[in-house]
Amino acid sequence: MQEWRDETTAIVTELLADGSNPELDYEIEHHFACQDFDLLEKAAVDLFKAGFEVTDAEEMELDDGATIFCFDATAECALNVELILADIEKMRPILEKYGVDYDGWGTYFQE
């Protein structure tokens, strides 16, 4: 979890240093991937039940020709490291249950 804390702190710090508005709520997009579509779908359902908005899964081909399936789960919150990490912690048991990989999060600059 320390890796995600460091990455989250860096992203938030960079956004704020660039002038992104700290007073607004941000749509935080958490990214997930799995080679098994059925497991990915089950994780998406559980994340939805946990209060996250979930996008439709997409199929992607990797450089080595392997296929993976991806989706995002979004939550709206302040651009705050602890709030974002709390959401990641909330997601972790679901991802571990189905063997789905967490691939980080992102958001957009807001003036």
Automatic annotation (TrEMBL):
Cited function: Globally modulates RNA abundance by binding to RNase E (Rne) and regulating its endonucleolytic activity. Can modulate Rne action in a substrate-dependent manner by altering the composition of the degradosome.
Swiss-Prot/TrEMBL keywords: Cytoplasm
HAMAP family reported for this sequence: RraB
Assembly and binders: Interacts with the C-terminal region of Rne.
GO terms of molecular function: endoribonuclease inhibitor activity; enzyme binding
Domain of life: Bacteria
Protein family: Belongs to the RraB family.
SUPFAM superfamilies per UniProt: Hypothetical protein VC0424
Protein's recorded name: Regulator of ribonuclease activity B
A GO term from the CC aspect: cytoplasm
Regulator of ribonuclease activity B domain: residues covered: 6-107
Organism, as annotated: Aeromonas molluscorum 848
InterPro entries: RraB (IPR016716), RraB-like_sf (IPR036701), RraB_dom (IPR009671)
Cellular compartment(s): Cytoplasm
